[in-house]
Amino acid sequence: MLDVRRLRLLRDLAHLGTISAVAEAHTYTASAVSQQLAALQREAGVPLLERFGRRVRLTAAGVALVEHTEVLLGALEAADATLAAARGGLTGPLRIGAFPSAVRTLLPAALAALGRDHPHLDLHVSELDPVDVPAALRKRRLDVALVHDYDLVPADPDPTAESLRLLDEPVFLAVADEHPGTLADAADSHWIVGSPGTLCHTLALRLCHDAGFSPRVRHHADDFTAVLALVAAGQGVAVVPQLGVEHLPAPVRLRTLPIRRRTSIAFRRGSGSHPAVAACVTALSSAASGSGLRPD
């Protein structure tokens, strides 16, 4: 019988790419991870890893085993959800992650509802970019997360997670006066974009590239309130979704762009029926309904 803990290490190697990264994620030594993977390979009876330069990579059998592991781990999550429902009552920690504009706009109402309806849940919130959510769910640092992508920059499917579409919202070009009037007019403007590596940074570069120019980036900022303040100060133009526009500074004008931002609720595969996760989904859905935005 294959050891589930070792299978999890192999799965994480497939996602993280190096044994040292797996070791760091599990607070093991690299030597300990290598020994566990070697033991798994002996159990399997076929090579699961092969040398690739100074690194290792999965063989075809290793890739196939990871696919089965995802199914197995999802089934274990579902089993845990069934036991939690049988125990009755919602208690214990619930770790929720969200991107900054959702923390300000959607999460407060959802947290208030969860606290009122399930007072024995111990709620923990972490603010993080959607690109960091899959790893946080796999490492069990989060149980539920709000994530987003754009129709222009869709997210890659994550086999370790499930998601439910929550809402769609328009996206704007924020300018400080009547000019620029269109995205093409902003080719000569300075730009305010998200930090490199964030989804918002990727979107801004892709949007400009598709319009035929590279943005002249002057500032990097991830909080949309700060972004709009910089636009109001004449520091450049920026791309801002509707949830990021809580208070529009007087000099700022919004130009609607032909793209949408899509927000979803993500959780580990198989955990959707866990009572705490289900309660969080209900609370977040109610908060989204109050925003007036709906999925397309």
Polypeptide structure, described:
The protein has ten helices and ten strands. Among the domains are: 4-83, Orthogonal Bundle (Arc Repressor Mutant, subunit A); 90-157 and 262-291, 3-Layer(aba) Sandwich (D-Maltodextrin-Binding Protein, domain 2), CATH 3.40.190. The chain has helices at 4-16, 19-26, 30-44, 60-87, 100-105, 107-117, 133-138, 199-210, 224-232, 275-291, and strands spanning 49-52, 55-58, 92-98, 121-127, 144-150, 161-175, 190-193, 216-220, 238-241, 253-268. The radius of gyration is 22 Å and the shape is globular. Helix 1 (4-16) crosses helix 3 (30-44), helix 2 crosses helix 3 and helix 6 crosses helix 10. The longest helix has 28 residues, at 60-87. This is LysR family transcriptional regulator. Keywords: DNA-binding, Transcription, Transcription regulation. Residues 2-59 form the HTH lysR-type domain. Belongs to the LysR transcriptional regulatory family.
Q: pLDDT under 50 segments (min length 5)?
A: none
Strand order of the largest sheet: 4-3-5-10-6-9
For CATH, the homologous superfamily of the domain at 90-157 and 262-291 is named as Periplasmic binding protein-like II
Q: Tell me the CATH architecture of the domain at 90-157 and 262-291.
A: 3-Layer(aba) Sandwich
Cα shape: globular
So how many helices? Answer: 10
Query: Assembly type of the shown chains?
Result: single chain
Largest sheet: 6 strands, mixed
Give the overall pLDDT as a whole number: 92
CATH topology of the domain at 90-157 and 262-291: D-Maltodextrin-Binding Protein, domain 2
